[in-house]
Amino acid sequence: MSESSLRLVWVYPDLLSTYGDRGNALVVERRARQRGLGVTRIDVRSDQSVPTSGDIYLIGGGEDRPQRLAAERLRADSGLVRAAENGAIIFSVCAGYQILGHEFINDLGEREPGLGLLDVWTTRGEGARCVGDVLAETDQRLGLPQLTGFENHQGVTHLGQGVSPLANVQVGRGNGTGDGTEGAWRDTVFGTYLHGPVMARNPAVADMLIKLALDVNALPPADTTWYDALRAERIAATRQPA
User: Fold this and answer.
1) Could you identify which of 87, 123, 180, 196 might form a hypothetical disulfide with 149, taking C-beta atoms 3.0 to 4.6 angstroms apart as the criterion?
2) Minimal CA–CA distance to 96: which of 67, 72, 125?
């Protein structure tokens, strides 16, 4: 990519865009433009091929049947897998996170193959759903502040040796395994259960993706007034005792 352009791909908004996850694409686009970067955003519907030339790919959450359909079509298309092999940055949320793993339980109660881009696999939890606000401390190697978001999922996602937790929860249940982990990442592929949308609550995540795409260590400063107010409000609300 050139120093002045960014190719942003929003994958399957017709199937995977619950809880305002489209906002992640809007925030990445906005944060890039605040730095004077040109952005070409491509919204790829499920009846279209996923281009392999993108810099950043975003995938949202979805209900059980749309998740199965998305997984089937992404496996058949293979564009996202080839983009990952080319070093593209991929950020996935909830159902999208599960799809990037080895397998998950679909709406038919069957084991559905994922894309294998993250060394994780998801089973269905037997207890109460993981629902509510989350606060989590991120992996220090990522250089991110505390994450705020909310979760709503029945899945229990187990991490293999090939990934690291994205964060460890202080409030909330994260991956649902009881070990305090939230999300997973490897190189330039990321998964999380956090909605909100997560990048509106945590603009530093969007900035991290942009830095990875540009292969730079820092970005010019940008106004974070609105984001800071939202973060402070949600963090304070989450910390209040029930």
Assistant:
1) 196
2) 67
Residue 122: strand, helix, or coil: strand
Identify the residue whose tokens are 């599960």.
98
CA 228 from chain centre, in angstroms, equals 20
Token couple for 88: 């593209």
What's the rounded Cα separation, in Å, for the pair 241 and 93?
A: 27
Q: What is the DSSP code (8-state) at residue 215? A: T
Q: Which two tokens stand for residue 160?
A: 């293999």
Rounded to the nearest angstrom, the gap between the alpha carbon of residue 46 and the centroid of all alpha carbons in its chain is 18
**Both structure tokens of 185:** 């990442």
Q: Which stretches of 71-182 are assigned E, i.e. beta strand? A: 89-93, 103-105, 111-113, 120-124, 130-138, 147-153, 155-159, 167-171, 181-182
Indicate the pTM of the whole model: 0.96
Please give the chain's pLDDT, 242 residues, in tens. 445 589 999 999 999 988 899 999 999 999 999 999 999 999 999 999 999 999 999 999 999 999 999 999 999 999 999 999 999 999 999 999 999 999 999 999 999 999 999 999 999 999 899 999 999 999 999 999 999 999 999 999 999 999 999 999 999 999 999 999 999 999 999 999 999 999 999 999 999 999 999 999 999 999 999 999 999 999 999 988 65
Point out which residues pair with 136 in neighbouring strands.
Answer: 147, 169
> ∠ CA 209-214-215 to the nearest 5 degrees?
95
